[in-house]
Amino acid sequence: MDGAAQRVLAWAERRLPALTRLRPQEALPIVLHRRRIYIVPTGFGLGFATLLGVMLVGALNYANNAALMLTCLLGAATAGSMLVAFRVLNGLTIGTLRADTARVGERIRVSLDLSAHERERSAVRMDIAGTEYAVSVPAGGSATVEFALDAERRGWLPLPRIRIHTRWPLGLFRAWSWIHPDSTVLVYPMPEAMGPSPFEPQGDADRGRPRVGDEVASLRDYRPGDPRRQIAWKLSARHHDLLVKDLEQPAPQEDWRLDWDSVRGLDDEARIARLARWVDEARNGGRRWSLRLPDGYFDIAQGDEHYHRCLTALALRP
């Protein structure tokens, strides 16, 4: 689009906010229909219309039937291209939203599904957060637009207003519509880079000693009564006596009890960053942990579900 057409479009969006950019938030799915699709000529379309006007005047002035027929055919193609551009967006459905997890300062990946029930929609473009994405939606199927948003702060990140438009098929007209999905994606807090470990109570004297388990600790000579499944047959074939695998299992690590009130001398954001780091370390180290916040408590557990519950609570702290 040239500079003049961009200025005209910007003027229309300022003067007609109810028809263009400033639509209220809407719940997904959103179906585009004729009352919310708008069409304007592109810069190329205006130039082409001027050319058709010149051709029409020349054909009438010189009574040239062939030139007049060509002008009428091109004019009909122009009108048809306007209808095709409208039909690309009419009936298009913006459906399911999916998002990955991200930390503050990262870019969160978001996927948005588009579907069409009747016919294929070609060259559908979406302007999202200053970037344009193009997709074609098959007839009776769906297509996915993947984009990334800057996660500037923790908590719920609302989706920006999205412009859906097309210049298909000839680039003479631009059909567009604005949507503002009433959907949000969650941004986790950024953990602190380094710092102390949480207080870990001292266990008994046997903590850390190997226990009977499934991991091989060493080989020893066979003793009567040893289970046959523990005999190292391949290694025993190289020796005169039978060798037995001595199995061990490391003692479990101490559970971590993470508490908001135990982090002293820091402001709220620094406390959240430290607790987030401790939750990450507990998960990566295979520990079980609990988390106590002023407005909630998560009992001793481990696993992805417990991890996401804890980080969600930290992300939504006021």
From TrEMBL:
Keyword set, alphabetical order: Membrane, Transmembrane, Transmembrane helix
TM spans (from-to): 37-60, 66-89
Protein name per Swiss-Prot or TrEMBL: DUF58 domain-containing protein
Organism: Luteibacter pinisoli
Taxonomic path: Bacteria, Pseudomonadati, Pseudomonadota, Gammaproteobacteria, Lysobacterales
